[in-house]
Specification:
Layout: E1 5-10, E2 21-31, E3 70-76, E4 79-87, E5 89-94, E6 99-103, E7 107-111, E8 116-121, E9 131-141, E10 152-156, E11 163-165, E12 169-175, E13 177-178, E14 181-182, E15 200-206, E16 211-214, E17 222-229, E18 233-235, E19 238-240, E20 244-248, E21 254-258, E22 263-270, E23 278-280, E24 283-285, H1 288-301, E25 322-324, E26 330-332
Antiparallel strand pairs: 1-20, 2-9, 3-8, 4-7, 4-9, 5-6, 5-8, 6-25, 7-10, 11-12, 12-15, 13-14, 15-22, 16-21, 17-20, 17-22, 18-19, 18-21, 23-24, 25-26
């Protein structure tokens, strides 16, 4: 049998992905204790380049936040964001009037469609110790027929996301089906909503010193495995170090031997959309003319405006996990 590995590549920022995905970003920040106002206790007067604060040599970054870490309001059109927060919390607010606080394993699925503004802030709620944040954001494209659907906001709470326990592995099934275990339904207009597109997003954790077999899928898909934490892994005699992506043949079972440390992976898989992609910042369309149209519409309409008092809006410090939907429905988790 031929090798299952098609390509390997180092993980940069953002991670490279294959159609139907656009890219993925991984944030791992060891934030310090909070200052009581959900910002960092240490002073920021140390030369940080706020707004371009992506230096991986730093233990933590403010990104575009000025007082609270995160990304103040910004627009999107033409694709979806899937935000996985394994550690820490994210405060969401958007131009639909939707809002939420989610984390510790929760996933937010947002369809930008014809246009939405949102903010993603990372409140530092613990004032007695550190506030670690581990977050993945995956951009999933929309086909031409769905570029202008109504925006949609959905929460996949960690209590509802199935986790498959194997002898030496744990597989969190965020999208798709793993050995008969089906993930929660994605957003309704998503490319992932049609099972014939075989979209899968799995967070896989495998014990050190063991072996794991990734089950085969359907030919004609793209399948990429992102090895973001661990020591080393082996495909037969071929060694792969952490912080590498591996493009795999989806039609083969893949046996992976794990090194001394526990290995952590994200798997992204799906049927390609196979349409032209035009990208500019937060807009993803099919042509450059559509990008110009998106920019002009945002300038004129702000995609509905901003109903919150601040661009970096966060929720009350003592608020638990919750979701407020555009129709006014409120879900409180704790």
């Amino acid at each position: 049998m031929s090798t299952p590995i098609i390509q390997t590549f180092p993980l940069s920022t953002p991670w490279q992905t294959k159609d139907p995905f656009l890219f993925s970003v991984y944030h791992l920040d060891h934030f310090p204790k909070g200052n009581g106002e959900m910002g960092p206790d240490p002073s920021l007067l140390n030369g940080r380049n706020l707004g371009n604060d992506f230096d991986p040599r730093e233990k933590w970054r403010m990104y575009h936040g000025q007082t609270i870490p995160g990304f103040p309001y910004h627009p999107h059109r033409g694709f979806e964001t899937i935000t996985i927060v394994n550690k820490g919390f994210c405060d969401h607010s958007d131009s639909l009037g939707a809002a939420g606080r989610f984390g510790e394993g929760d996933v937010q699925w947002m369809t930008a469609g014809r246009g939405v503004q949102h903010s993603e802030m990372f409140p530092l709620l613990n004032e007695d110790g550190d506030n670690p944040l581990e977050l993945f954001q995956i951009w999933l494209n929309l086909p031409r027929s769905s570029k202008f659907v109504e925006p949609h906001f959905k929460m996949l709470w960690h209590e509802d996301i199935p986790v498959v326990q194997e002898e030496h592995a744990q597989i969190k099934v965020i999208a798709g089906t793993y050995k008969g275990t089906v993930a929660p339904a994605p957003a309704p207009d998503s490319w992932a909503a049609d099972p014939d597109n075989h979209v899968a997003i799995w967070n896989i954790h495998v014990d050190g010193g063991s072996e794991y077999t990734l089950p085969e899928a359907t030919s004609g898909l793209t399948r990429s495995l992102y090895f973001y934490e661990g020591s080393e892994i082996y495909f037969g005699e071929r060694k792969i170090n952490p912080n590498f992506g591996i493009v795999l043949d989806p039609a083969q079972d893949v046996s992976i031997k794990i090194g001394d440390k526990k290995a952590h992976f994200i798997l992204l898989q799906g049927k390609p959309i196979e349409e032209p992609v035009a990208k500019y910042g937060p807009f993803v369309m099919n042509t450059d003319e559509e990008i110009q149209q998106a920019m002009e519409e945002y300038r004129l309409t702000q995609f509905g405006g901003w109903p919150w008092p601040y661009a970096d809006h966060v929720h009350d410090k003592d608020r638990g996990r919750f979701a407020l939907y555009p129709d006014g429905r409120l879900v409180e988790k704790n």
